[in-house]
Amino acid sequence: MAWFSSQIFAIPDHPWVDTVDGAAVRIAMTVGAAGEHSGELLEVSDEQPQDDGSEKVSFNSHRGKISADLTVGANLSTTVPLKANDMLASTGLILGGRGFVLSEDEAKSMKRQCPAAAKL
């Protein structure tokens, strides 16, 4: 029997302010539940500082399957290459440029200017 766990609520980047000690950090909050469930993801859309040092926070809400990286949408971490595309095409050898190429005159000039280069 398979056992699954789902995130049913998440806020990935929320300000947390301790007005007494002056701490100000960012936190993530999640709620999990056994089984396969969709959830609600809240993303901070606006933050307004308050006189007491706290923040008034506004959110955008997204519903769907919440992935481990606290996003909603296609879970790209589980993608695999299509077997139907095996051996259909190859980009072959692609040169990124000519490299470090000198003309014969440039090489002779460098050898005159640098005795160590003349030994090469």
Give an account of the 3D structure.
The protein has 120 residues and is mainly beta. It is 12% helix and 39% strand. It is built from two helices and four strands, in the order ββββαα. The chain has a four-stranded mixed sheet, with no helix packed on it. β3 (39-49) and β4 (55-64) form a beta hairpin. The longest helix is centred in the C-terminal third of the chain and has 10 residues, at 104-113. The mean pLDDT is 85.
Question: Terminal Cα separation, in Å?
Answer: 70 Å
Largest sheet: 4 strands, mixed
Please provide the count of β strands: 4
Average pLDDT reading = 85
Share in β-strands: 35-45%
The ordered H/E elements are EEEEHH
Instruction: Name the overall outline.
Output: elongated
Structural class based on helices, strands and sheet pairing: mainly beta
Helix content: 10-25%
Q: Nearest-angstrom radius of gyration? A: 29 Å
Keywords:
single chain; about 120 residues; four-stranded mixed sheet
In terms of topology, how is this protein built?
Layout (H helix, E strand, L loop, with lengths): L4 E14 L4 E12 L4 E11 L5 E10 L39 H10 L1 H4 L2
Parallel strand pairs: 1-3
Antiparallel strand pairs: 1-2, 3-4
Could you give a short description of this structure?
By secondary structure, this protein is mainly β. 12% of the residues lie in helices and 39% in strands. The model has no long low-confidence stretch (mean pLDDT 85).
